[in-house]
Write a structure and sequence with these properties.
Blueprint lengths: L2 H13 L24 H9 L6 E12 L2 E12 L3 E7 L5 E7 L4 E5 L5 E4 L16 H8 L10 E6 L5 E8 L2 E9 L5 E7 L5 E13 L2 E10 L4 E12 L16
Antiparallel strand pairs: 1-2, 1-13, 2-3, 3-4, 4-5, 5-6, 7-8, 8-9, 9-10, 10-11, 11-12, 12-13
Length: 258
Amino acid sequence: MNWHRFTVLVLLMFIQVACAAITPQSDTPARPADPGETAVSPTARAESINRTLVSTRGIGRITFTHSGQSQRLRIAWVSAVPEKLRAVLLGVDGRPLITISADGTWFYLRDHTTGEYRRESPQGYRLKTALHLPLDVSSLSRLLAGRMPSFDYDRAELISGRTPVETGIVLKKWWNRVGKVYILKSRPAIARIESYRQTGEMRYWVDILETQKVENYWVPRVLSIHNDATSHFVLDIERYWANEPVRPGTFRLDPPEE
């Protein structure tokens, strides 16, 4: 596969909503929590993590992997919860390769190497290819802030964590499981997110492999996002800024000048 085309496609998958269901690779069964615990307190705790962190900015390296092919590039981004994001992929010489942006109204893409420019409705734009990750801008902006994505659920059940240092929560809508959240007991930080379709099939899972403290927030330092065993990316964050002012027009991406 042409590496530039691979980069374009995988960057698109980075931001688009998936169209296909995914079979879970591993599913932690619900286990009884410790006696005396209830789901109310951990759920409230999970939703409150970094709630006041509303904008993030960072630079780092991102590794895309699809069907055994990988590429590692530098990335810079700025985001504002819940629906704004701008990200730039940079070449080895520091020049921008591709910029994507979403301002809450439009989705933009600019390929700096070919001059291609797109402005599409985020509701109408879908990547009709197997290269996709099932994330929207709202979920991604929250994850970059170390926050729990928005789930449509009406009840929660407490389960044991995957390890003794975690607390697990199953989120349900009616009788369907819609998500799982694992939070650390030692600090206000999320360790893992699992999202499910109504059929019970997994949409994606996110592991926050390392955290760091920035200002008063525990935020990701290394996170990975998967939709199956063949497609995922890992973001290794080198510098991170929390709640810095975002200039007007940051998320609008204009076409290149003629």
